[in-house]
Fold each of these.
Amino acid sequence: MPNKVKRFQEREDFYSRISTQNMTPLWEVLDNLVLNQPEDSCVPAHWKYEELRPALMESGQLITAKEAERRVLVLENPAKRGKSRITNSLYAGYQLILPGEIAPAHRHSQSALRFVIEGNGAFTAVEGEKTLMQPGDFVVTPSWNWHDHGNQSDAPMVWVDGLDIPLVEFFNTSFKENLGEDAQMLSRPAGDALARYGSGLLPVDYESRSLNSPVFNYPYARTREALEIMRKTEEWDSCHGLKMRYVNPVDGGFAMPTMATFVQLLPKTFKSIPYRSTDATVFVVVEGSGSTLIGEENFHWNAHDVFVAPSWNWISHRAEEDAVLFSFSDRVIQEKLGLWREQRGNESI
Ligand code: GTQ
């Protein structure tokens, strides 16, 4: 028997023997474990609001928000069907609350963000304070904070939920409690947090006890106005247009400990140069229309659509009219761990 074949058989035999001891040789798997660059197992994908809205409204006739606890259509990455995730670390879905409905109070380890799509004046209550929600508002629900939602307006309310469900699953750290009441008790008037912490002011002896921003609703009216004023002097970034991150006003960090959130304005006819980063990113179209090339796939989007870019895929945007994109990713965690990287199309790494 040639030496090479003998050696191969010896190795195979060795592998089967050590396999019974729950061991495997690193040298057979190393190239799959330590990659030269990220190879995301998720794929680029796009959900068109116009096409999914009928199904979302139909779900409103099938089950009440109360019975469902949360009436949400989960956006599943096409490469991760059955796993309730849009990226490897993040969950997203469209949540519907009809007039007169409530989604009862509960709390859990998972952090949630809401980005309002349509409707006007439904509320979410977070840890003792209610906020009325308008389209484009970004609302924070921190880990283990009581929260309930309700709609006292006369129109359906829809928002995009972003949660760190897969991350909490990875760490096996999920806890959950139902309050046993539809709504929690309120201890502060609506708007208190924004006035106290989101006006360029802080209580004089304020010491943060939270990993989250004390501002829990970042109203679109303020965000949009800020973008509009900035665009007058801002040099457009060749990759991002005019891109801002939502911050915790206490320390200047991201608003939440597990999800980084951003908003960007792309002016009419803007075409970005390619950009990639290690944080797979979920985009929500707030206003306008355009298209985004992600890897090899081009997605033409309109207001209220969601699309997702996997880690380290090249992204370039084109705006057909003034467009605003909200986005979220796990960049905040990657930065803390020293893992986050980005590359612009005109740079080497
Ligand atoms: O609103 O509390 O989309 O607990 C998934 C789980 C929303 C919520 C989701 C949740 C919620």
Amino acid sequence: MKKGLKGRSFLTLLDFTQEEIKEILRTAHTLKKERKLHKKKLRFQAKTLAMLFEKPSTRTRCSFETAFGEEGGYPVFLTSQDLHLGSKETIEDTARVLGRMFDCIMFRGYKQETAQILMKYSGLPVYNGLTDSFHPTQTMADLMTIEEEFGTLKGIKCAYVGDGRNNVARSLLVGCCKTGVHITIVTPEQLMPESSFIDSCKELAAQNGASVLVTDSIEEGVKNAHVLYTDVWISMGEEEKKIERIVLLTPYQVNNDVMNMTGLAGTIFLHCLPAVKGQEVTEGVFEGPASRVWEQAENRKHTIKAILLLTLGC
Ligand code: CP
Ligand code: NVA
């Protein structure tokens, strides 16, 4: 049965069909064109968005805040220091209060479970602005950027090189499998996603015309890739793993040699940002002609606005 997007939360792409993801992308492309034409609308007028942050953010915060605010909505930025969230008050109780005051909630933090509790107890649409498990709004911007570059998602090959277990890799894996993008995770054995998760993604890929390869071989993994993607080696909250990650991932740095290994002239480079240049990517690739990182960062805003519009039914 078709559920429609109105009233839905956005916690993981696992909850969305290929058609729903495409509807969000189509809306995002339209919104981007509208903005370039300076077409101002007030589709969020008199609506309120609670933005809860346990971790820092530049792009996600600014995307949600400007997307919602510039259309007449009222976003309220709240950090763990401002709220009792999970310390003096349970997440369930905080959620019940927010549910009586706001129209929707964005959450960035550690546990995916916190986002689920916020959804259950507030009764509102909740948007995952990054947890340890997933970063689904990032993947929407990644897919939009790939579509802009190649005019399609179907048949595109994307190779993610780096920490294969992190939130960005896991969401990208799901997003690609749902939309017909052939996805390769190139990562050392110790950082490969859990096998049960890979198996579920392979099933999704089979249903949607995509394929999944997880390998520790850079040569094998990046061959014929239209897109090379990387993310930081040490995600927020993993600072104590710094030395071990640098040792494990130094051979997986995206540099010009790795870009050339795709064998394609038109391969583009993507990174969710923020980047640690000299670690996961060289300055040369980051600043080079294949880099689309600023388009990708801008597309955070258009895709997030599309998610807000469609789920709020505005
Ligand atoms: N890519 C991303 O989520 O960036 P921020 O951490 O700045 O929000
Ligand atoms: N994997 C990174 C993504 C930052 C946007 C982190 O969680 O820190």
